[in-house]
Amino acid sequence: MAGRSLTISPRMGVSAAALVVALILGALIAVMSRAEVGGGFVASDWAALRFTVWQAFLSALFSVLLAIPVARALARRRFFGRGALVTLLGAPFILPVIVAVLGLLTVFGRSGWLNIVLEAVGLPTVSIYGLHGVVLAHVFFNLPLATRLILQGWQAVPAERFRLVAQIRMTPWAVFRAVEWPMLRQIVPGAAALVFVICLTSFAVALTLGGGPRATTLELAIFQAFRFDFDLGRAALLSLVQLVVAGGAAIAALWLIPAVSTGGGQDRPHMRWDGKGLWQRGLDALIILLAAIFLLLPLCALVLRGVIGIGQMPASVWSAAAASLSVAVISVVTMLVLALPMAGWVASKRAGGVEAIGLLGISASPLMIGTGWFIVINPVMNPADLALPVTALVNALMALPFCLRILVPRIRETVQDYGRLSQSLRIEGWPLWRWVILPRCTPQLGFATGLTAALSAGDLGVIALFANEQRTTLPLQMYRLMGAYRMEAAAGAALLLLIMALGLFWVCDALGRRYATA
Amino acid sequence: MKALTLAATTMIAATAAAADTPELVVYTYDSFVSDWGPGPQIEKAFEETCGCDLKFVGNGDGAALLARLKLEGERSDADLVLGLDTGLIAAAKETGLFADTKISADYALPIEWTDATFAPYDWGYFAFVHNKDMTAPANFKALGESDAKIVIQDPRSSTPGLGLLMWVKDAYGDEAPAVWEALADNVVTVTKGWSEAYGLFLEGEADMVLSYTTSPAYHIIAEEDETKAAAVFDEGHYMQIEVVGRLAGSDQPELAEKFMQFMVSDAAQSILPTTNWMYPAVMPSGGLPAAFEALVKPENARLIDADKAPAIRDEALAEWLGALSQ
């Protein structure tokens, strides 16, 4: 215990965490400072709260339950195109909501592919609208994330363990109980909490697929308070409720995580000797196939549509793409500055209540953060001049919890395994990061950077509040095309966005793996 | 080094030139400033005459414009706001940020325009757009009884959604909740804004979508697609009148007034129909494009007075939420 907490100085981590809290609470206080009309929590807000929590709970449950077999199958199998598949499976998560929803509708919609097939074979058609549609879309978005997180957990299990269990001829079930279950207990609650919190702030998905005002979420109530009533007091109150619910959920889930060490290994590439039976191979193949169909068909729909529209895209789409790219780069740098010290700090502690601070970033309403900072900046300078940095900063905040989830387990392991040695060699501060920690987590760094870059490129949150025509990002440009009836050109822009987000993710992820010290 | 000096001199010269040209900042909604919207053409035409630099700043939709203005208060850089509608006028005036205008024109609106602060620049009727191969219902009651599927916008996040609410309220008064209850099973879903709703309709997710009577004109003119039509309802159609107003805090009051006059002039009005896909507020000398003449024309134009709109809006929203939440 003492040896671990000494190696990484908490100072930088505490500063970064304090900055995150200040950015979010500062926005909240700024909004409150301008509040004139104080609105209370009314009956419809309770209904919104209930719906918000219930759909987020279901979404988290199904996303994680389904992710476990998919991650297990992917962890056990080596096949051609596996890397590409894992990258592609990540695509839904980084797509702007409306793009993904249109893709989903092409497959599951009223006149979608599924219903065409059902009708052809004489079965009743299905409707995607309602609570089940919201959950379906959230699983589509978050299953890949949960799968990736759990897959990282599997990859963090030292290869020697699988050699050992194979040598003593343990059955797959015994392997699961002895090796995989302890790892899952460590990873799954955090992954579930993450998905839960992401879905808590659902806005466009719940609105579009919810089917009507029944599916009102807190985020919509916040949006209404800001934009429809301009009741900043109510907006602040609702934002606070969202922060408390999401933050509370995060802390509760983090407390449940037992501090299990996965022990020291030698980082050899994984070889698996278990699960070689025909039945198991068939099952794994089926699971991977089903997941791929579910996640890739809507993407195929987007590609098919986008290819037709790409020729009709005006030149301004390309400059918007360039703006999105610069947002992505600034976001990545900001994220690294925030996430690395925080991850180091969290990892040096036994279990991370502090990690919940990271989750504040996604529990806070982007509209609240944007409006709050608008209020703060406005007296000093024109907020539009800061559109890109603020967008990048908020995007970094949004990506922070994912990055912590990805980085913390690996850094914790490194600290546990090499902490004493480093300490006895008096390696601390920057050299500790440079020579011990960073080289051991390049794959995780690549994944985290890729995710941040892709998420930022597709973001439509804050930029809309601050933007002017010189600072149009690609998602905003896509919306403008739709607003001008240019649906085909918008589909082209959506495809470009898909390619860009995936490309950014793939490049970062691949670089991380390439320089992994395996 | 020489290149650097040259660059510096050029920059100083450019800055000096920019300082001589007054800048006029207009806040507007997103689709106005897009490449296909009226923005670029209006900017070009106005700059030819004004000796100024016209700058459009796009910002969400009408409601977002007002929210941004309230946020910025008197510090706003904007000289004018273009794109509020009659439903937002009362709230806009309440901010005390707007100045009265003297401009007038021979408006081609179905109603008489008397507002002293805002000038209308275009307008349209809300309507349900559908494919011509379906027989459209003739009013809200028939729609409620039919099994036609519609997609509408959330009144809490979009101006067309709010327009529909006012339409039903204006046509049916106290009966409006019952009308909405009958419509509940026709509503496939409610979207955040117009773009999503229209997208869903084109995807085949619904038989009809709340849009404008002028929407089919886009399909006819830009896509040579004549399969879309707007349904005429015998209760009459609610109107959206889009307005422009200048801010009292503007440092270019005369130029701002000149811009408002330009917006109702022939030069601007002839640009609007085929870029904003709405009716012009003043009939351009060249008339309307042929496709517009072929559009359905509602006989009864409905509009709730701007000063009564906020109270009715709150009541109608509560009724709408009540009827559709069951």
From TrEMBL, chain B:
One annotated GO biological process: thiamine transport
SUPFAM superfamilies noted in UniProt: Periplasmic binding protein-like II (SSF53850)
Primary location recorded for the protein, binned into one broad class: periplasm
A GO term from the CC aspect: outer membrane-bounded periplasmic space
InterPro entries: SBP, ThiB, ThiB-like
Keyword line: Periplasm, Signal, Transport
An MF annotation (GO) of this entry: thiamine binding
Signal is among the record's keywords: yes
Gene3D superfamilies (UniProt xref): Periplasmic binding protein-like II
Signal peptide: 1-18
Cell compartment(s), UniProt: Periplasm
PANTHER family named in the record: THIAMINE-BINDING PERIPLASMIC PROTEIN, THIAMINE-BINDING PERIPLASMIC PROTEIN-RELATED
Family note: Belongs to the bacterial solute-binding protein 1 family.
Annotated protein name in UniProt: Thiamine-binding periplasmic protein
